[in-house]
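Why predict the complex rather than its parts? Because the way molecules touch one another can change local conformation, and only a joint prediction can capture that. The input here totals 666 residues.
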Amino acid sequence: MDSDDEFMSGLSSQDEDFGGVEESDDGSLGDEFDEDNPDVGFSQDKDIKPGKKAYEVDFKAFSPEDIQSHQDKQIDEVSAILGQSSEATAILLRHLRWNKERLIEAYMERPDSVLETAGLGPESAQAPTTKVVKGFTCEICYDDIPGLETYALKCGHRYCVDCYRQYLAQKIKDEGEAARIQCPTNGCHRIVDAKSLDLLVAAELKSRYQVLLTRTYVDDKENLKWCPAPNCEYAVECGVKKRDLGKIVPTVACACKHRFCFGCTLSDHQPAPCLPVKQWLKKCEDDSETANWISANTKECPKCSSTIEKNGGCNHMTCRKCKHEFCWMCMGLWSEHGTSWYNCNRFEERSGLDGRDAQAKSRQSLERYLHYYNRYANHEQSAKLDKDLYNKTERKMTGLQLTSGMSWIEVQFLDTASQALQTCRQTLKWTYAFAYYLQRNNMTEIFEDNQKDLEMAVENLSEMFEKPTAELAALKVDMMDKTSYCNKRRVILLDYTAQKLKTGEWKFNVDIAMGA
Amino acid sequence: MSALPKRIVKETERLMAEPVPGISAVPHEDNLRYFDVMIHGPSQSPYESGVFKLELFLPDDYPMTPPKIRFLTKIYHPNIDKLGRICLDVLKSNWSPALQIRTILLSIQALLGAPNPDDPLANDVAQRWKEDEQAAIQTAREWTRQYAMA
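Output of the joint prediction:
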């Protein structure tokens, strides 16, 4: 119960301050895991008590309205403290990237310089208006007709209203700027505030301006990120910092159900940390197909390691690059072949052994990669197939409801199973990328056992899915069992991996800490 | 073609009436938005006594967007690439409609006098500029002699 309270309080204090949450995180983690161990066998417990696993992070999804009201709330709060208008406060907050504490502190110490650097300067209270100035020439369009309406910000740089309008439209529409539009004068950093903007621009631009402002709010805050799913307008809040990404893989779920990594905004890639994932994706992009072909069809020059395809002719090879002459069969020096030109029976010579050794090594590293890649790709492919299969099954499910008299709710187990398959395959996929970068020690064996268990469970479930629809009704209980087993194995695997990641016990053959 | 905006007419007139020392900009007769530009290399720089040709074009939404400018003469400079494109803040994010052709050309001349290898456009040149400034300056001088002196 204690830990639950802690968990909840962690959530509510999230808006304000993340330092505290991290601590309560670690604290509750320890107890929770001890408590969880004895009742691993009962999945119902999980539903009753939301115990937090090592791979889980706190997060919250926000709608565009939520984001707007957050902004307004913070602006109101700070504006009351600073005694500034809400327009000015908004500019100040945006200027300091929504770091309230820093703003208040800096403002209390030296208000004038804070206002100045934010582009506000000494404030005067009157509402902005356009003016006609006698003998005025606009510095932008050089128009000087009498009666020209003009406008200037508090900095006094005056331009005609038309030019001002065009300028703002250019910034908002074409350059997508909002919070940091400056006075048109070169070198003047005065920010165009919301009131001036209201006065000058057309209604449709105003709404665009609001959208952009909201966007900068999310972009500016380190603990907020847009959901990367297409057409999703939600943002997700999470307290994991960039520097922690070598220790934790912060997978979050948006209100639209899309699961993604808060660190890099790619789709959920637990258990592998962000940096190896990035390297893996790059490697796969560059290598996989080519590597397959190379492995099947070529050998390397024993001297310079250029990749060589033998497309005909005899075994006497001359490397185009380094002019090394060698035998395609034994990879040894050609000169050692004496007069036995066209066949090679010389397997004992040193040079041949060396040549094959070096080649074996590079082949081995390629094979190692392909081992992991094939499994990675297989799960990706299978997940797609499972999904197709499910779509087909869904149609049959409707039929099943009609023929066997099962109700809609009774056939939902297929949906649950399908979802479990998808998430588990996603996890499995990334275990292979993870394993590729892992250095072997005795913990990797436990990891591989976990991986094996999950994989077997998933394949079992997947097989059941392929059964004809008529048999599915009879398999219901079995499938439900398998589904919950899969989910449980996945939790165990992720939890174990995340714990060791947190304590830095995995050793990788690449750098996993994000640069400062 | 639509009538030339007053802004461009005035600017052109002023460029002709009070030219900037070391810089000339002449519009084409058939396209008054297209200028032939010459900039003299600043003294005390590796580009000294070179005359560099540039082309300048004022896009439709000028002066809301910056003019497009490119070096036509080959030049060895960390902020100017093989195609003559220039890396200069006022030509991009720091453009202001209150700036003019005149001020932009002056900025480019100043860039010749003060190369900035920390914000490079031509990476190989910038690299060399940082590693062996003397040699880089020597190359810049040779290029100036070879390409920028008639």
